[in-house]
Amino acid sequence: MTEENSYQLLNTIDSPNDLRKLDINQLTEICKELRQKIVDELSCNPGHFASSLGVVELTVALHYVFNTPYDRIVWDVGHQAYGHKILTGRRDSFKTNRKLNGLRPFPSPEESIYDTFSCGHASNSISAALGMAIAAKLKKENKRHIVAVIGDGAMTGGLAFEGLNNASMDPNNLLIILNDNNMSIDRNTSGMEQYLLNLQTSESYNFVRYKLSQLFSKMGILTEDRRKRIIRFNNSIKSVLMHQQNVFEGMNIRYFGPVDGHDVNGLVKVLNDIKDMKGPRLLHIHTVKGKGFEPAEKEATVWHAPGMFDKETGERIIQDEEGLPPKFQDVFGETLLELAKQNNKIMGVTPAMPTGCSMNIMQKDMPERVFDVGIAEGHAVTFSGGMAKEGLLPFCNIYSSFMQRAYDNFIHDVALLKLNVVLCLDRAGLVGEDGPTHHGIFDLAYMRPIPNVTIASPLDETELRNLMYTAQLPDKGPFVIRYPRGRGSFVNWCCQFAEIHIGKGRKLKNGTDMAVISLGSIGKVAEQAILRAEKDYGKSIAWYDLRFLKPLDEEMLQEIGQHFEKIITLEDGILNGGMGSAVLEFMNDHHFYPQVYRIGVHNKFVQHGPIEELYRICGMDEDSIYKVLTTF
Questions:
Q1: Over the stretch 573-617, which tens digit does the pLDDT of each residue have?
Q2: What confidence tens digit (pLDDT) does each residue in 344-375 have?
Q3: Is 405 a catalytic site residue?
Q4: Catalytic option among 238, 254, 405, 598
Q5: Out of 37, 289, 547, 598, which one is annotated catalytic?
Q6: What is the 3-state secondary structure (H, E, C) of 116-140?
Q7: For 484, phi and psi rounded to 5 degrees?
């Protein structure tokens, strides 16, 4: 079947205005074609797959019922929003999704007027949408609807509940849609529950209720406090009839559901019934992650971001890894299990990323010692601090960009008390196609000012193993180890453990003309550039692996300051406040005044694309480093 025949109806949708012209009976076909479009595109252009398949019907219903972009839809966890992109003028350009200079990996207001807020990280939709709802109220935009779509694990984040708490207190007309794809919040469906849903979404019921509330408000009988008490009374009646109550009703947020999230006509009816109600409301829908593609329905975790696959057979196209160096995350996972077998104090903590960081290796072998706390980075850090306070040794693994959400927790709940928590920052540096919300470029700069903390970054896999070994030795205090996404350098990486002296770097190569100081695995890129520069121009270049950003190897830096007038620093992170800045500060404080050229990420957000291309754009690839070495 040709693409033209496959998407006969979808190809007529250039904007939600076109969608809203369709008869409601055509929406099922639109959903079928939209789901097929996602399958077709992602089979050859990888991205986040299962989540977007699960919200196809919801996406169609939202744009059919609401007057977007005037009405605001705020997505939470942007990997749910591929269908949204296709329906909002990006159908033909969707093939460029996540590619350099193509569509962004997550919704962004800089890309489309239909993308109302940044949503690369989870749990922010309710807070952002509430702000928009309050703004609409203050600006007297009474016809504007604000909808927050949260789900796919995002309800485990504390920020979501902060937003809910605020929404329950301040007058607003926010509609929250909870996309529940088998989360712990599941409720049993019963005849009474369906009756109550039908009653509460009844147009006549809500018209009478609204008119009475208007009348009582004008008479001064229905104050805001009394309105909340009436809602509490209503929720009490519901809890008596249904023998249960949920957290939303306890917060005075009107609750509707659960409803079938894959019945597009049913969703349209419910949304039409509740969209003009006053006050905060929550619609709870049940969906299946990976809906419509059987392998993804069966193994949603594997198919979250499966890479390329055969759309006919459902077979993933997996690269032959025979003879390749391991991924850093797998070295972490294997080493953690090995250390845990030797040290019974070691625990594993991860905020919803056991597979992504390879802590599932230990989880499979020692499930009682691994804790997946959900998308709750701040809690993960404080939880780790609590265990450390009682003598355990948690290895808390968080993606570098997500660690930004737990900064205060680390300062207040770990560093201040000098607790023995090993914080492993996976995906440090530029990460590629996931773009600016996921690049881990700020960690060196934001960790460096914190007292009591050791900060290290390994050049290769063996260094990662030995840093992990060193960090779990007695009384090392807060210990941060950052390492990149991707593969290392050695096939035979599983070395014997050896302690690394904290705060000691190493000279990897002698030289007399200039010194290169690198931190982390990007030093491997510098190594090749140095060899080329020496061969082509006869340069004599010394190379130092700093290893530790904190504490600095002052003895090594003293040697460099005394012997070199030209120094090049190289780091896979933001330059402002990073390793190069630390070297400059040391040289100035110790009255050395060499020329220092810093290579790293300048003060800007870096777009998405292949890591090699992003390195080139940032001047961090081999050719760019070579040019600096030969012209500096």
A1: 999 999 999 999 999 999 999 999 999 999 999 999 999 999 999
A2: 999 999 999 999 999 999 999 999 999 999 99
A3: yes
A4: 405
A5: 289
A6: CCCCCCCCCHHHHHHHHHHHHHHCC
A7: -90, 170
Q: Which residue has tokens 């993606």?
A: 399
Cα(42)–Cα(50) distance, rounded to whole angstroms?
10
CA-closest candidate to residue 209, choices 231, 176, 239, 193: 231
Q: Is 289 among the catalytic positions? A: yes
The two structure tokens encoding residue 392: 């355990």
What are the CB-based long-range contacts (under 8 Å, 24+) for 268-273? 268/24, 268/27, 268/61, 268/64, 268/65, 269/201, 270/201, 271/61, 271/62, 271/65, 271/66, 272/65, 273/201, 273/202, 273/203, 273/206
Beta strands 454-456; 548-550: pairing state: antiparallel
SS3 530: helix
Could you give the C-alpha distances from 431 to 76, 210, 610, in angstroms and in order?
21, 51, 8
For the record, the structure tokens of 616 come out as: 């080139």
Q: Which of 41, 57, 377, 433 is catalytic?
A: 377
Spatial separation of the C-alpha atoms in residues 308 and 304, rounded to whole Å: 12
Phi-psi region of 312 (alpha: psi -120 to 50; beta: other; left: phi over 0): alpha
Instruction: Convert the pLDDT of each residue in 387-445 to its tens digit.
Output: 999 999 999 999 999 999 999 999 999 999 999 999 999 999 999 999 999 999 999 99
DSSP E strands in 261-337: the ranges are 281-286
Closest CA to 280 of 234, 236, 228: 228
